């Protein structure tokens, strides 16, 4: 296995985000610029980011539309506006796996993580509806960008998926 999943516990985390509904093939082109937009929005209000930017997949329908948020963690809850909205990532148990390589290879890394979880009997905090899979928290957390690391084959991305609560 190229990725090494580990179980982690996370507290609730406020964040600022822009929500998008897009066809899967257009995600990268549309979402990447929004990370800078949110950082600019926070800076204009004197709010310091409290962590790394991420994409949060809320609804996944590979054949159709994907709902995904571009988010930046904040230390405290914030007020939003028409474009940038406040949200709260749920606390609880998560699986974290680091992918090293070009972001276009994240789909393969995600498939590997999902296969690992199925083999381990791990249940995600997600459910299926007609519109696709709905996830409580399925994150891609970006440790690099084109400025900090021009060689995209060296990019590091954390896949952080929330586990179903124990019953």
If you average the pLDDT, what whole number results?
90
CATH architecture: Alpha-Beta Barrel
**Quick one: biggest sheet?**
10 strands, antiparallel
**Outline type:** globular
User: Could you estimate the helical fraction of the residues in percent?
Assistant: 10-25%
> What is the rounded Rg?
16 Å
Unreliable spans: none
CATH class: Alpha Beta
Reported by name, the CATH topology is: Multidrug-efflux Transporter 1 Regulator Bmrr, Chain A
Secondary structure class reads alpha+beta
Number of strands: 10
Structurally, the number of domains stands at 1
Number of helices: 2
Distance between the terminal alpha carbons, to the nearest Å?
Answer: 30 Å
Order of helices and strands: EEHEEEEHEEEE
Strand content: 35-45%
At the fourth level of CATH, the homologous superfamily is: Regulatory factor, effector binding domain
Can you characterise this structure?
The chain is globular and about 45 Å long. The chain has 167 residues and is α+β, with helices and mostly antiparallel strands. Strand 3 and strand 4 (65-73) form a beta hairpin. The chain has one domain (6-162): Multidrug-efflux Transporter 1 Regulator Bmrr, Chain A, CATH 3.20.80. The chain starts with 5 loop residues before the first strand and ends in a 5-residue tail after the last strand. It is built from 2 helices and 10 strands, in the order E-E-H-E-E-E-E-H-E-E-E-E.
Task: Write the SSE topology.
Elements lengths: L5 E5 L2 E11 L3 H18 L9 E7 L4 E9 L11 E5 L2 E9 L5 H15 L5 E4 L2 E4 L2 E5 L13 E7 L5
